[in-house]
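lol ok so funny story. i was supposed to be doing the assay writeup but got distracted and ended up predicting the structure for this chain instead. priorities right. anyway since i did it might as well share w the group, maybe its usefull for someone
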Amino acid sequence: MSEATLFKKWMSFFYVFNDTPENRETISDFLFYEFSTKPDVFYRFAEHIRQKLKNAKASEQKIIANAYLGVLSPICARFGFYGEKDKLDDICFQIAEPANYERIERILKTYKEQSKDIIQKTLLSLKKVLNKTNFDYEIKGRYKNILSVHKKLQNRPRKTVLTLKDIFAFRIVLKKNSVEDCFDVMNLLHDEFYPVVDYFKDYITIPKINGYQSLHTGLTNVVPHLNIPIEVQIRTAAMDEFAEKGIAAHWIYSKTKKAHLISEKEKMLLDYMSSFAQKEVANQVYFFSHDGDVFNLDKGSTVLDFAYFLHTDLGNKMEYAIVNGEKKNLEYKIENGDRIKIVKSNP
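and the output, tada:
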């Protein structure tokens, strides 16, 4: 199946499924298994959705945005596609909840104006320390995306944007792909400034399940008289690319001359994801009822099996099925993505 046909099939799910928690969970399972066998294609599918939103009508944008936020955004996080996810999160959040988007955007703009001086002073302070060494590095700074800030405020109702501590993070990217250098930089910063114990996370030694690797630490006294911790992430250039593209980057690297950049842990993760997905997809077929509910049955199941699954009486009285708008007999074997209406005989 061509990539364009695959994208069209996946997009069609958004237009027919009935948006309930149960349906979200079932379709998420199916798409997760599908994407696990081809994470690089999923990454391009996320880019395809972004382009689709630009050209779609307002009513269609709303459908795609809600489906993305409810189904695909969590899958992007599971795969570690944070670069594309952050862009799509905000685009879809603005379409789905324009009032909340504008409210957070307005407050965040004020935060950025008030924190601009702090960020510049922090950058200078970090560079001053790092420039005393021979590390080839780059410092990046990024704000949390608008949807992320909105969720943080929902989870912490007594907080305001201006009192959230992790709205902005500094990222030190080391050009040399050396794990030892990451720990050396962290120790250097801990010696120079005051580390915050409960901020430290070592995702290099123990990566996240999606393969994400980085050191996270919180520092105080980076800027004199600043009483909030500064979040600093330390990683190699390869880790940084993986953080943006997630498993897709691991997958692409494993198929190219850059395969030597893949660690043994990452190879094991890729093998696990691939074998897990192939086993699950091989045994199940996922499809829709005429009303948009999502079902899964054993592969090879017929429309008659589906009728009996719904109700014994419906199976006994079934005459034929309408599948994707076409009449099918009782022996028709269900395929992934089919939309099925069971028609029973007149009494």
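The radius of gyration is 24 Å. The mean pLDDT is 83.
back to the writeup now i swear
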